[in-house]
Write a structure and sequence with these properties.
Elements lengths: L1 H23 L6 H6 L4 H15 L4 E8 L2 E12 L4 E2 L6 E2 L3 H15 L26 H5 L22 H5 L19 H15 L3 H13 L5 E2 L13 E3 L5 E3 L9 H4 L1 E3 L1 H12 L6 H7 L18 E5 L3 E10 L2 E8 L4 E7 L5 H18 L2
Antiparallel strand pairs: 1-2, 1-12, 2-3, 4-8, 5-8, 6-7, 9-10, 10-11, 11-12
Length: about 375
């Protein structure tokens, strides 16, 4: 295993040397190559990604980026399976963690548009088995923007191993716990709140969460490699899971079971499929333009995030890049990001298979967008 990792790093260092020589990081002899590559965005992007995986000491990364509604490049670097020496390419299927929330929120808002869900309606109108609280009425919009008062994970619940056969069964893990505060009073990020939203989707639509998402979100967006993760299923090109140990070495991570939080962090996908979702969402093919704007209203509560969070998305305005939508994710063996640069018409997704490397994944995302703006089509 150690020999395999040494071979991989040797190969990656060679890739980094190639980037230095051919992209021209201060070497004047490479200038003609740089000029010739001005319109060769895919090649430059691949060189950048190869270099970043080495520089940031990652195992495998898959990326995709679109401009003006068109996917302009997909790529990968490093390994999706270190033990079997399998490369991380654009077809790498990997858990996307909390990016799932943006998809679940979109599905809920589709049902709002069709009149099957009322944002102001009490949760018990859709999920009567969920206990009422003496702290106040828990409404659908409270679940969407994390003001429900439902707590996040307790203890080791962020690394679940138990299998739940339904969302109703999964909710039994937390539904009897007292709300942390009256609904609508504060902001408290909670993946469990999105598990409840999955049950709302099932009740309102009469379909399972999985079937509804496939028919109304994944298929309309052109997401052909996206679905709920089940470890027992043989999925082509599925990535393995890694983490850093106490000595900062790369080791295998725990294969957690995501069935307790499918609607909040249990979907697997590819970077390309995530970009297709971002395009479809931006173009109003999943929900109407006015619904998108409704999803991007910050709740006026006592305590808030430093970055505004609406329904399934974080959002802010950047002085240079304009309006940005953002959702990232982290769980066992996973660090991911999906961003929509609304005023630049850019959508980018990055999937990494090492836990707690969100900062590194963010660096790759930024480098890719900067490169596209500078040299892309």
């Amino acid at each position: 295993m150690r020999r395999v990792l040494e071979d991989v790093r040797s190969w990656q260092r060679s890739a980094l040397i190639s980037v230095v020589l051919f992209v021209g990081l201060g070497i004047s002899a490479a200038a003609p190559c740089l000029a010739q590559a001005d319109t060769a965005f895919p090649g430059l992007a691949q060189q950048m990604l190869d270099a970043k995986v080495v520089e940031l000491d990652l195992v495998g990364v898959s990326v995709a980026i679109a401009k003006d509604g068109v996917l302009v490049w997909e790529g990968g670097a490093g390994l999706r399976d270190r033990e079997r020496n399998l490369p991380a390419g654009p077809d790498m299927v990997h858990r996307i963690a909390s990016i799932t929330k943006a998809m679940t929120a979109t599905a809920v808002m589709q049902l709002v548009e069709s009149g099957e869900v009322d944002l102001e309606g009490p949760l018990q109108d859709y999920v009567p088995s969920f206990p009422e609280s003496d702290k106040g009425v828990l409404r659908i919009h409270h679940l969407l923007n994390h003001t429900s008062g439902i707590r996040h994970y307790f203890g080791r619940e962020n690394r679940p191993t138990e299998r739940y056969e339904s969302l109703q069964e999964a909710m039994q893990v937390f539904q009897d716990r007292e709300l942390w505060f009256p609904p609508g009073e504060k902001f408290l990020y909670t993946t469990y709140g999105y598990t409840v939203l999955g049950a709302v989707i099932e009740s309102a639509s009469g379909r399972s969460y999985e079937d509804y998402m496939q028919e109304h979100v994944f298929v309309p967006a052109g997401m052909t490699h996206t679905g709920l993760e089940r470890l027992e299923e043989d999925v082509p090109n599925r990535s393995e899971l890694y983490r850093r140990d106490k000595e900062n070495g790369l080791v295998e991570d725990l294969k957690t079971d995501l069935s307790v939080k499918y609607p909040g962090g249990g979907v697997s996908s590819t970077a390309g499929d995530l970009v297709r979702f971002g395009i479809a969402f931006s173009e109003g093919r999943l929900v109407r333009a006015e619904t998108v704007e409704e999803m991007l209203i910050e709740p006026q509560v006592e305590s808030r995030r430093s970055v505004p969070y609406g329904f399934g998305w974080m959002f802010w305005d950047d002085e240079n890049l304009g309006r940005i939508l953002h959702q990232d994710g982290g769980q066992s063996g996973t660090s991911t990001v999906l961003r929509i640069y609304r005023d630049r018409s850019i959508v980018v997704a990055v999937l990494g298979n090492v836990a707690r490397t969100g900062g590194e994944i963010g660096q790759i995302q930024k480098a890719l967008v900067d490169l596209l703006i500078e040299r892309g089509p």
